[in-house]
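Collaborator request, handled under Task 6.
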Amino acid sequence: MLVACFVFQGERLLWMRRAVAPQRGFWAIPAGYLEVGETLAEAAARELREETGLTLAPASLRLYSLGSITQIDQVYIAFRAEVDDVECHPGEEALEVRFFAEQDLPWSEIAFPSANYSIQMAYDDIRRGAHGLYLARHD
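Structure tokens returned to the collaborator:
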């Protein structure tokens, strides 16, 4: 199972430039796989910390979306968090960590364009000023 964490800071989302294959050098939302003995929120918080240096308590994460990624036969669960000014630094799996507003995001450098639906959904939520709970399928 894949877990992700959408971190909102005002009108921006937290991204990490991948340091590992696949898609090394491309931007992605912090995400990774659930490990044995972890809750979903614990896995999302761990992946966030490992990739961006940002430590958030699992209890502070809110369920954001769930769905399937058919091309890799995975179920994914995404959480969201809102932060003010925070310090981030790339972990071993990241070359760079940055918050991007929608208009500043280098869309041609997104690691997994099949996830653009979820990314657009997050930026739509920023514009609306409200967050939903979503069910999605990425083909």
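The cover message to the collaborator said: "Residues 98 and 132 are 24 Å apart (CA to CA). The mean pLDDT is 93. Please let us know whether this matches your experimental observations."
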